[in-house]
Amino acid sequence: MGIICFSVKSTGSGGRLVAKNRKWYKTILIMRVFIYVVCGVYTAVIQFWYGDRVVDLVNSFLRLFQRIHALRGSEDVCYGSKWVLTLLLLKVIGLMYESCYLIPGRISDINAGYLLTTICELYNTANASVMLNVYFVAYLSIGIIYGQVNSYIRQELRQQLNELKTINGTPASRRKLKAAAQRLDECLEIYDEIPRVVDSFHSLFEFPLCVVLMFKFLSIGSITFFIMKNLGGVSLWFMVLKILLDILLLTVAVHIARSNSRVIRWLSVENYYITNNKDWHMKLEMFLSRLNYKEFRVRPLGLFEVSNELILIYMSGLVTYLTYIIQYDMQRENL
């Protein structure tokens, strides 16, 4: 974490060593400590006071998967596609590195102080990162749920609805119309249930998402500063890449969920004839209105939107920050 926040450098011609206080760097470290404490307290609160709500939330996700698999003709029982497997493997690789990067290269380096530091660092890092892993799995699951319902409507239900069209002026039987209406109604209910599950998830985990992203961004900034000052080795480069990978995987999961949530508008289920009942048409109109009103977006506390653009904005700010430091060091050396 960094307790001593000053640098010792040579003054140049005289060769004297001078210690200089780094107040701005101390501010970054204090913010990181504060974020560590907030993540730890929030994790304890969730575990001891809101454990039942978390269990109900997990069961809600599982019930959505069960309802999808219960649809007639839905044979896709896997958790996503090959791309989802690739994302999960990348997440596992990041977790393995996060668990092992503090292990010393030589057994002789182990002592009581090093073990205590390693345990504290592992606890703090895992406590701050476990929330990010929860978000990744949750948003990836939401994207998979949307994708499976879309796939069922596109590949099976639309084909069944096309077969219900009148052939040579003969309308389809009432039994077939009723069965198709029930399947379409079940799909619409699943679409309506997903935003309710998402709202329940955000009500519990929206605040720590904002805090964890701040922690990750501050970590990248402080680690990059050490790399520029040649104060670390290759391990720091890997740590920066690992943090960027965590944020990238989160934004990709959100992008998948948001993209799949928009597909229902392109399927045009309202154009298929089911019945002339006014209640049914009103239900479809209200469903389409809710799609526009409850668009899937991830905006922690309304401060910013989690998307791929977030990484680009942060990287642009980080490059500006590093450029300023380089110019400042060059001007100070010329004085």
How many domains comprise the coordinates?
1
**SSE pattern:** EEHHHHHHHH
What strand line-up does the widest sheet have? 1-2
According to DSSP, the number of beta strands is 2
Low-confidence stretches: 1-8
Keywords: Cell membrane, Membrane, Receptor, Transducer, Transmembrane, Transmembrane helix
GO cellular component, one term: plasma membrane
Protein name: Gustatory receptor
GO biological process, one term: sensory perception of taste
Please provide a written account of the structure:
The radius of gyration is 27 Å and the shape is elongated. It is built from eight helices and two strands. Mean pLDDT is 72; it is low at 1-8. The chain has a two-stranded antiparallel ribbon with strand order 1-2. Helix 1 (23-49) packs across helix 4 (112-163), helix 1 runs antiparallel to helix 5 and helix 2 (51-70) packs parallel to helix 4. The two termini are 32 Å apart. The chain has helices at residues 23-49, 51-70, 82-100, 112-163, 174-228, 234-267, 278-293, 308-334, and strands spanning 6-10, 17-21. It has one domain (50-334). With 335 residues, the protein is mainly α.
